Amino acid sequence: MSNNDNFFERVYEVVRKIPYGKVTSYGAIAKYLGAARSARMVGWAMNASHGDESIPAHRVVNRKGLLTGKHHFGGINLMQQLLENEGIVIKEAKIVDLESVYWDPIKNLN
Hints:
Layout lengths: L2 H13 L8 E2 H7 L6 H10 L11 E2 L16 H8 L4 E2 L2 E2 L2 H4 L3 H5 L1
Parallel strand pairs: 1-2
Antiparallel strand pairs: 3-4
Helix pairs in contact: 1-3, 2-3
């Protein structure tokens, strides 16, 4: 197993713990894992997770609440639809009230 595989698995462990109706950011996951400058690698892990129903990748957005990973989901606006099904309000591919649905792994998993 390469270091990337191990990092990706650690990312997936965190993502699986994001509660229904909540989101977190790539950077927050990276920081929680002790790799604060690795937000982009978290994004790569999310992209590599597609097809694994146990990983709610749709709950990971950028730090401003933008659905930057949406083009990696099959279907038109699937990421947005999945989030809206969980009660999250989105306008122009951005979460409307990010603070109300933001889940910080550092505060919730430590």
